[in-house]
Predict the structure of Mannan polymerase complexes MNN9 subunit.
Amino acid sequence: MARPLGPVRLKKTSPLTLVFGAGLCIFILYFLLGSSAPEFSASRKASAASHPLSPPTSAFRQSTSGAKTGPPPVLRYNLNNVTITNTPVKNRESVLILTPMARFYQGYWDNLLKLSYPHELITLGFILPKTKEGNAAYAELDKQITKTQKFGPEKDRFRSIIILRQDFDPPIPSQDEAERHKMQNQKPRRAAMAKARNSLLFTTLGPSTSWVLWLDADVIETPPTLIQDLAFHNKPVITPNCFQRYYNAEKKRMDERPYDFNNWQDSPTAQKMAAQMSPDDILLEGYQDMATYRALMAYMYEEGGDIHYEVPLDGVGGTALLVKADVHRDGAMFPPFSFYHLIETEGFAKMARRLGWHAAGLPNYKVYHYNE
């Protein structure tokens, strides 16, 4: 006959064991729920966005844990706290460098890396056409971005980089310099450029942006202090003088010549021509068939002159153009249509002026365009 068992007595668990078990549970939960994204330096981590729909000028730290992303946060920004001063490095002001790109030039990227403005304060934005040339440019650009952002030294890495592809076809198939500058191609070409610039601007301009630097993809040489030098003048819109190096066969040596003729002061002749035009017609600069007799900044350069010498401008080009972000926030964009008989960057200068913002140029401060 089986003997009945007596009452079972459980061994009392020690407090130390309970504490250890609780700590282990917390560690496991943290490991499972925590983000496994790689860490950034302190300065970059502080600027990282927490959601893919957060402002694009902050880098998004994508989680690889597989956890479902919640709804975007409701954020409030006080734009009165965004400083735009002539000492942008001292005040840690964010700069947005925007570049429409149809071809990739290694000199452009190398020059970009040489800029002395803290790269952790710079966001890059690109827009490329969906063409064969655009695809080739995208592949080269992506290669350089990976090399810099993933394998390059920390000081060379930019805060974030945004790449867009155009959702419309280019009006002219070739990007050769001679084809681009034909007079009959100017209005459709520059209208397309204006659309690309606006798409890029409206997509990337964030609430923390202080300055926007428009820099063409074929500008391959600038002073490393370009951003600081232009911002020093504290102008709403300011542009340097764009030149081009070339081999002078007559002098049998390298020489340079003016390149950007869209930086100008208006003339009575041009105003009279505009008054006689139909609403959709535009004035173009640098063509013998349309002599406007404007004062071109390209020809105001004085060798050995003060690089900080300023001149007021009524029209600007886009090869290198520093704009206070508030000018764009006020609504100044690049008209893809005839705006007071001006289009694209020249139309932008006119629109900015109508909003109370005035443009200036530095005729003795040079940047250089690629020579095809």
Remarks:
- Residues 273 and 292 are 8 Å apart (CA to CA).
- The radius of gyration is 28 Å.
- The first helix runs from residue 15 to 33.
- The chain has one domain: 80-369.
